[in-house]
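Kindly draft a sequence, keeping tokens residue-aligned:
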Amino acid sequence: MQPAISAPMNAHEFTFENLDGGALPLSQYAGRPILLVNTASLCGFTRQYAALQEVWMRFRDRGLVVLGVPSDDFGGQEYDTSEQIKSFCEVNYGIDFPMTEAVGIRGDDAHPYYQWVAQQGMMKLPRWNFHKHLIDGDGNLVDWFASTTPPNSPKVIRAIEDLLR
């Protein structure tokens, strides 16, 4: 009899590839809330990068991690290379929060994190670029915000502040 394969219990069990190279395990942020956002450089919502940087600068000293996860899954709106993504984000928005390599979000090529999110409930899955997940310090997916909800909206700020208390 083969041992049962355990399903991931929280977000800390997933690892992305860092946009700058190397592994980016979410477990390195244990004890800190994470605002994880699937991004795209050429989307109508791309201006939210400025608000993400604002939220990062406002709350990083209190423990919040903003994590950008580029994807080309919605409308083919992401650059082809990590170098292009990094350059675009730095030059146009001064982004210095952590970013991952581009990943698949839906379908058979979805990153394991997004496969796990699908198991948490279909409404939590991104339906477009700049969908936001709020993960608590224990790695639990505690809230999500649609692409149309800016990261610096009162609703998102309130949820972040609640986790930082």
